[in-house]
Amino acid sequence: MPFDFQPYLSGTLVDVRPLRQEDFDDLYAVASDPLLWEQHPARNRHRRDEFTRFFQEALNSRGALTVIDRKDGRLIGSSRYHGYDPGLDEIEIGWTFLARSHWGGTYNNELKLLMIRHAFRFVGTVVFLVAPDNVRSQRAVERIGGVLNGTRADGSGAQNLLYRIESRTFTPS
Predict the structure, then answer these.
(1) Domain contains 65
(2) For position 132, which CATH number holds?
(3) Does residue 1 fall inside a structural domain?
(4) Percent of the chain surpassing pLDDT 70
(5) Residue 19 belongs to a domain
(6) What is the DSSP letter of 95?
(7) Range of lowest pLDDT (5-9, 24-28, 39-43, 143-147)
(8) How many whole angstroms separate alpha carbon 157 and alpha carbon 29?
């Protein structure tokens, strides 16, 4: 069965669905906050021109998802599946950002657990590449069970910390 990169997922706090072109304005309203990107390698992603490139890459990836707050139906962020490798039996989850109003772990945890459970229907390993300076994202991945497993270059060639979650040892909290 081929990997489903753009599922519809639903939890207690969030709904997740494929990213659409018409999501740009609502997603940019979230992404225009410079504090979202302060620990990220793309610190200027809050600028419209930078975000426009990011958004177009997300659409082109065919693995990008929007995150919607179930309480009020507002779009609060995005995430993405990438790098499906049947030979390694793995997929990457990344490019995640959420509105600061939804920081604190609860929303991110549910989003990632929904995405991980979905991924484990197709692969045995989920990986996360996190910039060495992005301590906030490192802690978030560790909270959901990510285990640091060395480094790996991302698509741009930059070395990132490599976190892994294996389906055989995964015990969601």
Answers:
(1) yes
(2) 3.40.630.30
(3) no
(4) 99
(5) yes
(6) E
(7) 39-43
(8) 29
